[in-house]
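Example 3.2
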Amino acid sequence: MEQLLGKEWEITPAGGATGDAYFAQYEGRKLFLKRNSSPFLAVLSAEGIVPKLVWTKRMENGDVITAQQWLNGRELKPHDMGSEQVASLLRKIHRSQDLVAMLKRLGKTPLLPEVMVDKLKERMSRHSFDEPIVKQALVWLEQNLPSIQNEEFVVCHCDINHNNWLLSEDGRLYLIDWDGAMIADPAIDIGMLLYSYIPEDKWEGWLQLYGLELTDDLRFRMKWYVVAQTLYSLAWQKEKNVKKEMQQSLHFLEDILSFT
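Structure, written as tokens:
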């Protein structure tokens, strides 16, 4: 990184799962650097969904480094997720045809429910889950696969955890960490947000802010995708041997399946 910015810059790791992100600062200037970000970042920056992309540079070894504005601000808290600002930004993302076009150019195709089930079955078979709820959830997904009908495919973030929402000091909201983005049913994002953060009696009000009606079909699709995403999380947690998070996901799964 020093060869790109100069030795006068102070560069520190920014953490994260990949270890390829850094903070850089010099004389009041601050940047967020990342190695080999997707070209998708440029479109997200142009639409104001992520902090502004300052530059992109290719290193001699072929790595591509991107630099974004480093904004002072804070991550959202769980209680912030019911705000109109969150609903508005998610609606903007889901309605953007430029985002869909860019992901298609990058080779992404719509994520179909039957493909999710096949991948889940293959992934879960590599792990020994003793908990009956896991098998029950897989059976439930497969049994209800014919009921999942949707003709609208949008760009979904697929990890709308409150930690991925950044509220800047000037009040602007951003959604960061787009490595898992897919073209998919918007119920993937909406369902996980509502199940994780919004009491059921407030779902209808939040969806009005987003611009959707809470139909029986949407309710069912949300439940189906939340069960699928939770199983994906369990498989990842099993691989990483994070037992506390696994227990939380198992309890969450039980709650979802008991939902009417």
